Amino acid sequence: MQFEVIAKCHTTRARVCRMKLAHGVTMLPTFMPVATQAAIKGLTPQQVESLGITLILNNTYHLNLRPGIKVLDEAGGAHKFQGWNRNLLTDSGGFQLVSLSKFTKITEDGALFASPFNGEPTMLTPEQSISIQHSIGADIIMQLDDVVSSLTVGPRVGEAMHRSVRWLDRCIEQHEKSGRKDKQNLFAIVQGGLDPALRDLCLDAMIERKDQVTGYAIGGLSGGEEKDVFWKIIKQCADRLPSDRPRYSMGVGFAEDLLVCVALGVDMADCVFPTRTARFGVALTFKGPLNLKLGKHTKSMDPIDKSCPCPTCASGMSRAVLHHIVTIETAGAHALTIHNLVFQARVMGGARDAILEGRFPEYLRSFFFDYFGDTGYPEWCVNALRSVGVDLMQGVDVPLVKGSGVRWEYSDAA
Amino acid sequence: MANSAQTQPGGAQPVGSCFPKLTFILDQGKQFGPRVGRLCLTRPSDTPSNHLIDIPTPNFLIGTSRGVIPHFSRDHVHSANGISWINVSFESFLEQTPPVPTYQAGSQPLHDFFGFDSSKHIVSLSLRDPLDAREMPPNGNSHVSASCMRGVRKVTPADWRSYVLTMQPDIAFALSDTPFTAVPHSQKRMTKSIERSAAWLADLLRPVEHTMDDSSTESTPTALNVFVHMAGGTSTSARRAFSHSFMETLHGLEADAVKPLLCLDEGVAGYAFDLAALHVRPAPSSTHNDKGGGIEIAESSLILQNSELLAQAPTPNAAHTPTSISSSMIEPISLLSLTPTLDELLRASLDPLPIAKPRLVTDVRSPHEILRLIKDVGVDVFDAGWAVKAADIGVALDLIFPVPCSHDSDPDHRKRDVGHNLYDAKYAYDFVRLSDAFLAGCDRTSSSKTPVCPCAACSPVAITSPIYHSKVDVQSHQAHLDEGTSREQFSPPFTRAYLHHLLHTHEMSAHTLLVAHNVAVLDALLTGVRTILSGHVDQHEVATIFAREVTRFEEVYDGDMSVFHTARENWKDVKYARGKGRLAREAQKGKEVR
Question: What's the gap in Å between the CA of A246 and the closest CA on chain B?
């Protein structure tokens, strides 16, 4: 990997970077759409690439089950298998073991879980996770970490953090001896739950191993924790992580979360949210999400967003047509998936331009005003951005909203 | 449940006489037998787009579901080059009163609302989905029962006329009184069907009344391009009677209503045959009815993948041919002898009519049926429904016409399948393009005689101008282009192994790629037909050569379409096994089979 910081925000910790991997250059900060089972839901790789997307994510857990490593090996890796010629990142499979498998038991050796095929006890070790990811062949691979729910408290959190460090060492060893270091890049995952002391210990240990890892992820968040805790942990990690390594915030996908993370110094994020919400009939816009299932869109001849360059909006596809097909026709899901991916890319692309042009604080202020101006700013966003020198409340008369402040179009009344 | 949709359309007002002109030129051919022609649509010169769409026939049209081509996003509709005629069935829009598309403003509301390209696409409008043969409440003297998600709607000829005049389709299908009630239908019912269908046709052919500035009214012919469903069901005499009825010179009030037309046929641009209604047969044998049809389809329209609706069985006995021995062995002999064959029915309808009008058949169910209808009747346009259905159930079509000599030698004398059931485990490691009969775009060589499949699955076009989201994005694309070692125009094809994976993981992308591929294969089939038919001057010779090629096709490819049956079973297995614990359930099932 060639990694270069090409611009920094004069106020916040935000930065623009150029990350060159085996399958081309990706400009950061960026959002990574999730192609869980080797396909962005409903789209072809050509469509995804045409949207200006240069880095997507595959899930190791899923690809290991189907099509399986043997198929991927014979295909020559996941890039060739799915016809994706751009950069690819795979997670380690640790998160899905915890979220999808009932009987996972973590031992020092690895994660012991019931095979979804026959229920037999199966072990996923850090070494195996890395070697599976070698078969997949992604440009960025993740260490296997000991994932605990972000709501977990007590000694288990510390244990998981320490184990994640030990597993990182085993992943590094496996990766070093693979001879694939020139093509694939290993990222460490900072754990430690919501406890700043544990996070610091983990950061100490992982920064020590900087020469063996090409980037860092911040894990163990986006699991339902308080937003005020979320941003503080992100800030703590981003502040301390080395500036010459990309920083990846796992599972972050709401536009406001993305921009806060970028302001705190995060370079990459992934989430299924934009693609999943598309399948439920929700279009993302700079004025908040639009739930196209609602009756108020029945007769609207307007596109989702007149200024959007996505093929859905550019073709003039009206909200009325979308209302008629979303959640019924696959084509409805495709149209909104295309739009939502472009929305995410526009949010991040806009951030890149703003940072480059020295107007990122203004970009934040105008984004939040458009997105939340009518309902009120989430208090946690205001707090988070104040911590890096941007005051959203300055000069505007917008109420503060407690809690997550997530915008949602619930009903026709809204 | 039944509701009347009597209200006039909403926003846009009917514009009147700016319909494009549809002409059909029969280059070669006789009343019955293979023929080639051209369907030309000329748009009024004040429209901004290309004025002429020229479709060589035989060709195909593709139907829509809720106004969209199944599984295609708009960029795919525009990049799929074979698609030049799209049919929109209006009934799903009866959920709202007035129907929402009638709010679309502009001079080409139907194209604009659905995002079709008026310089490339002929868009026709029918009330009902021609592939939907589910049982329906009876039609009345002045209404057709149409189906939408909120139930059954009654649509009067006046409603239909106003929808058509508002939506400005390139081609409109007249309402037809096709009974979708339990078969068999009485003779009285058939007589009614014929009378109503003719009356409703006449209603659509009435001139448009313009209100002039000085508030007098003036009538001008609609210039609508009207296709008519050939009524008469499975009775050849009823079919003949229907056709005769609109060749008759009109008198009195009837003549006044459609002035200046002398007979109804003068206002008819083409003849349509909906085989869906004919495929529903009286059921003396249980083999015919095991599909049940209705119930399964009804629930499926509410879910995202409405594939079941499209996954109906082909009916191998639809036309009796000596070559499809196995299918006729299964059918009760009595049925075959009592019921006129499909081509007899079509010929009965066409016999009294002028030959130089396009003939359209919907709900064909196999390439064999298409070829036979071209050979024995002379059909000009077919709907692509069966190829889309194949994509729904995971079948990648792999067939070619005329059959090349290399296809001759099959050691075990087993017929080839018309496609690959990509659910089959044998494709898990099959890293090749979808069709043997076609090359992938990136494998194109000047020396090879094998044609290239131009679809999005076999010839994916490498991206040269993606959307940039910031000014530095050019770096990621420039660097990529520089290093791509002079990037080829086409990326490698998607493989059977990848599609196999997508189908088993229930990924929607599988169906998108398969629709693109199957439609391209259908396009190539009909291109092959046209090449044969236009390659010889002597009409008799053409017919003989064509018949020989059809026989060869039938000898080489399995006309029972058994690959569709197994694919449908596999598709169901994946569908029903979905959800938590699925891998275990499938493993268990695998054991039981073994």
Answer: 17
What is the C-alpha separation between B40 and B38, in angstroms, rounded?
A: 6
Measured between alpha carbons, how far is A248 from A251 in angstroms, rounded to an integer? 9
Whether chain A has a CB inside 8 Å of the CB on B75: the answer is yes
Residue B497 and residue A81: Cβ atoms within 8 Å?
Answer: yes
- Residue B162: Cβ within 10 Å count: 17
Give yes or no for residue B231 having a pLDDT over 70.
yes
The answer to whether B591 contacts chain A (CB < 8 Å) is no
Asked if residue B44 has a cis previous peptide bond (ω within 30° of 0), the answer is no
- Sequence-distant (≥ 6) Cβ neighbours of residue A366 within 8 angstroms: none
Q: ipTM value of the model?
A: 0.97
> Using CB atoms and an 8 Å cut-off, which of residues 254-313 of chain A contact chain B?
279, 298-299, 301, 309-312
Q: Which of residues 95-134 of B touch A (CB under 8 A)?
A: 96, 100-101, 103-105, 112-115
Q: Do B467 and A345 touch (CB under 8 A)?
A: yes
User: Does the pLDDT value for residue B321 go beyond 90?
Assistant: no
Catalytic residue among A73, A91, A267, A397: A91
Task: State whether residue B424 is helix, strand or coil.
Answer: coil
What is the pLDDT confidence band of residue B50, given thresholds at 50, 70 and 90? low
CB contact under 8 Å between B494 and A83, yes or no, is yes
Spell out a b/e string for B76-94, using b for 16 or more CB atoms within 10 Å of the CB, else e. Answer: bbbbbebbbbbbbbbbbbb
Q: Which CATH class is domain A2-271?
A: alpha beta
pLDDT band per the 50, 70, 90 thresholds, residue B222: low
A238 in Cβ contact with A2 (< 8 Å): no
Residue A191 labelled as part of a binding site: yes
Average pLDDT over residues A361-366: 98
* A270 flagged as catalytic: yes
What are the φ and ψ backbone dihedral angles of B582, each rounded to 5 degrees? Answer: -65, -45
Task: Give domain limits for chain A.
Answer: 2-271, 278-401
Q: Give the Cα separation of B172 and B125 in Å (integer).
A: 5
Q: In which element (H, E) is residue A215 found?
A: strand A215-218
- Nearest Cβ partner for B508 among A26, A41, A298: A41
pLDDT reported for residue A389: 97
Residue B295 pLDDT more than 60?
no
- Reply yes or no on whether the pLDDT at B320 is more than 90: no
Asked if the Cβ–Cβ distance from A83 to B463 is below 8 Å, we say no
Through-space distance between the first and last CA atoms of chain B, rounded to whole angstroms: 49
Q: Is the dihedral of CA A307, A312, A314, A316 positive or negative?
A: negative
Taking only the tens place, the pLDDT of each residue in A214-262 is 999 999 999 899 999 999 999 999 999 999 999 999 999 999 999 999 9
Model pTM score: 0.92
Predicted confidence at residue B289, as pLDDT, reads: 37
CATH number of B3-211+221-284+314-383, picked from 3.30.565.10, 3.20.20.105, 3.40.50.10490, 3.50.50.60: 3.20.20.105
- Are the CB atoms for A299 and B12 separated by under 8 Å? no
Contact assessment for residue B486 and residue A77, using Cβ atoms and an 8 Å cutoff: no
Beta strands in A43-201 (DSSP E): 55-58, 87-90, 105-106, 111-114, 121-124, 140-142, 185-190
The full set of domain ranges for chain B reads 3-211+221-284+314-383, 397-458+493-593
